[in-house]
Amino acid sequence: MQTTDRTGGRAIYWGTGRRKSAVARVRLIPGTGQLSVNGKPGDLYFQFNPNYLSAIKAPLETLGLENEYDIVVKAEGGGLTGQSDAIRLGVARALCQLDPDNRSPLKIEGYLTRDPRSKERKKYGLHKARKAPQYSKR
């Protein structure tokens, strides 16, 4: 969704990403390439881990827009890995709103695919989802 409120007439592009139990609401705002997650700088939030930071900016790098847009994120649930992957999906979806021609290169790289893997529920009679009590013959 594109809106132009509170940014002085600049367009804002929205995208929502999910991974495991993490949900990320992503806004792309024309700027200088800054990343802000839950009001903190992105590198501080992701503990200066280059894997998380490069995963988040990968859709922008694919299109050559690394320094064109600021990423503002509200992330909830899960851990840092789930949140970073959710942010990557949200950024890719926002880039598709920015220009429909961006869809095919992002789809080829796999950035528009939601990872369906999540934690399996615990079953009764078992310790965890699949771990059973030790078998006793007598």
Strand order of the largest sheet: 1-2-3-6-4-5
Estimated helix fraction: 25-40%
**Poorly predicted ranges (pLDDT <50, ≥5 residues)?**
none
| Largest beta-sheet details | 6 strands, mixed
Assign the CATH architecture: 2-Layer Sandwich
DSSP, total strands? 6
Count of alpha and pi helical runs: 4
Number of domains: 1
Task: Compute the CA-based radius of gyration.
Answer: 19 Å
The structural class is alpha+beta
Instruction: List the helices and strands in order.
Output: EEEEEHHEHH
Q: What coarse outline follows from CA principal-axis ratios?
A: elongated
Under CATH at level 1, the class stands as Alpha Beta
Overview of the molecule:
This protein is of the alpha+beta class. It has a single domain, classed as Ribosomal Protein S5, domain 2, CATH 3.30.230. It has four helices and six strands; from the N terminus they run βββββααβαα. A six-stranded mixed sheet has the order 1-2-3-6-4-5. A hairpin with a 2-residue loop joins β2 (12-19) and β3 (22-30). α2 packs parallel to α3. The protein starts with a strand and ends in a 29-residue tail after the last helix. The mean pLDDT is 89.
Q: What's the quick description here?
A:
The protein is α+β, with helices and mostly antiparallel strands.
Q: Which SSEs are present, and which pair or pack?
A:
Elements: E1 2-3, E2 12-19, E3 22-30, E4 35-37, E5 40-41, H1 42-45, H2 50-63, E6 69-76, H3 80-98, H4 103-109
Parallel strand pairs: 4-6
Antiparallel strand pairs: 1-2, 2-3, 3-6, 4-5
Helix pairs in contact: 2-3
